[in-house]
Amino acid sequence: GDRYQHFADVYQAHAPEILAESDERIRRRDTETWEDELGAAGFEAVELFSHEWSRSMSPEGVRALYATYSDHMMVPEPRRGRLLEAIEGAVADRGGELTLDYRTNVYTGIKPRS
Question: Among 34, 73, 88, 101, which is 20 to 30 Å from 109 by CA?
Answer without folding.
Answer: 101
